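Hi F.,

I've been meaning to write this up properly since the lab meeting, where we talked about keeping a consistent format for the predictions we share between groups. The idea is simple: the sequence comes first, exactly as it goes in, then the structure tokens exactly as they come out, then a line or two of notes. No screenshots and no reformatting. I'm using this chain as the first example so we have something concrete to point to.
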Amino acid sequence: MPQRSTEDSLYALMKYIRKKLDSKKIVTLISLDIEGAFDGAWWPAIRSRLAEENCPVELRRVIDSYLTDRRVTVRYAGEQYSLDTTKGCVQGSIAGPILWNLLLDPLLKSYGQRGDYCQAFADDVVLVVDGNTALEIETRANAALDHAREWGVSNKLRFAPHKTNAMVITRRLKYDTPRLSMGGTSIAMVKEMKLLGVTIDDKLTFNSHVSNVCRKAIAVYKQLSRAAKTDWGLHPEVVKIIYVATVEPIILYAASVWAHAANKLGVQKQLAVVQRGMAQKICKAYRTVSLNSALVLAGMLPLDLRVREAASFYEAKKGESLPALWPGDREVEQMASATEMPHPADREELRVVRLVNQDDVNSNSEFDVRIFTDGSRLEGGVGASLSIWKGETETKAHKLALSRYCTVYQAELLALCRATREAKKYAEKSYGVYSDSMAALQTIQNHSCLHPLAVEARENLKAMSLQGKVVTLHWIKAHAGLEGNERADELAKGAAVGSKRKPDYDQCPVSFVKRSIRMSTLDEWNRRYKSGETASITKLFFPDAVAAYRVTRKSEPNNLKTQLMTGHGGFSEYLNRFKCKESPSCVCDNNTQETVPHIIFECPVHDSERFDMEQKIKISITADKLHNIMRLNTFKQPSTASQDIGIATCDTSPEAPQRAPQFDTPLASGRHTVGAQKPKKQKPRGGVVEDPAVFG
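Output, unedited:
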């Protein structure tokens, strides 16, 4: 069905079950299995259903032709066998799901009349029976199962009792298990059940589902890890695309159903195992790098927060209130129902005429009424306007105010919608509607777009057409000195700034919802990052995860930069920790460990280069100012001095190109070299390493 998905089905099912559990009921979930559902759809039953639904005779004749003289042919080993068939909806065909829905619909309606909750997605039928006692459930469920079997017999379909499973869900500590049967065959009781790709357990913990999806995601990572190493292989951007397009959809599928499980520490650990390896591949980090560092440098949000974010966004689009995200009682903009749209044969063909200059406007102004529309955002306010002209005179002007969280796109659509509404009130026969927003005009022109304002505008245009009125939509160039457009722009700006009355339109756009949810996610991630005990070196460069997210997601990671920002690389302290070097000391002092902070801030070997760089960037290189250097957004190629201590030099001139920070410079001065590969058949000597290539 249009605008329906498996997640909608699962969300509605779990919402119903939780409602019954809150009422302290015992719930029994039954998954019905229809043997060869699509292949067994009986054609006489389909023809009967078409007649019951008053399908036009012409369409019934087309379907009769489609269901007549069909043969099934099998070719094998040079032989061929054919057989006439009188049943089956071709799977993968356009008509197949429609014919199956026609056939199954009476079963669902009959359960609704009986007071039982029944739900179906294609041929996956689920029955929910609740009660206060096991005996009550047993009586109702067995009657419902017998009803399904009788319906199947009358429609030449077989329910398979041995494949039908049932599961008891309750919050009670003590309860009896109901005994269910179908056609004399007992129904098996299970502890978990897989419905539409989600594993549901009898305690609604979803631990099994999380384990299953994590196992699938790890299998993808294992395949990917063979082609993505720290210093060769797939480009980080390619790895990130694979992660976003493959791993995240596996994890986030039906997140609204099981998102509450992501609050558990055990689930968070499983998701962290999946994400840590992918994040390390994206930022070219060693396997010893912590999850916090890898996520910040890879520009990725923690996976458990992404799960909760996806669930919140889904619930917001469904119209659920989310007071934690925004105050007040804001209503999210809902798309119109696709099932209520007019038949394609009844749609009005809408054409948009493009007008570039005043001459084009003059040649397309022979209308009884001309209506100029515009939308504007100014000083945080959003407004729209109409300017109605008859001849060369403006006869009426309307200012429309929108809530501050609305978009200019909504303002443009609102202005066009109100223009068609105003035109309905006039008695004139010809109307010209002018707008400088091609996006809004194309939205109205596109009948498959179900934006509520566009739908209302099309309904108004259809009503005017039935009244014998002619309406022509025009696109005009903005800010080109066109009189009507400039007047509408002036009115829209006045509505955006000066209006203090109740908004004419206050539906919250989906973009605002998404932005609010993302900001809440970033705040939680920042709190978690700052309070974490890991990523101490990374916090020198990026003490704030939100600020780091804005920088790292625009920069290209590499293994040299990652080694510097994590401390996991060719440093004596790190190599000594893993028994790859005898001493952790720096070449400047045997009593001082060679670490990233020591090299950048203290090592006397680099005093001259450090001084030269401070003169260039006009900032002293200290631990409390390093993060400010990282956030500078104007950079040029690093100088020799900056290469010596591994920090890019910033260009503070006004002519400097504006781009995201790039920190691709290796740490390479004297005997300090980060990221170089270990020479074959060469062992490190204690203290000073004479060869410039140290362990990578």
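Notes:
The radius of gyration is 33 Å.
Residues 381 and 497 are 6 Å apart (CA to CA).

If this format works for you, I'll send the rest the same way.

G.
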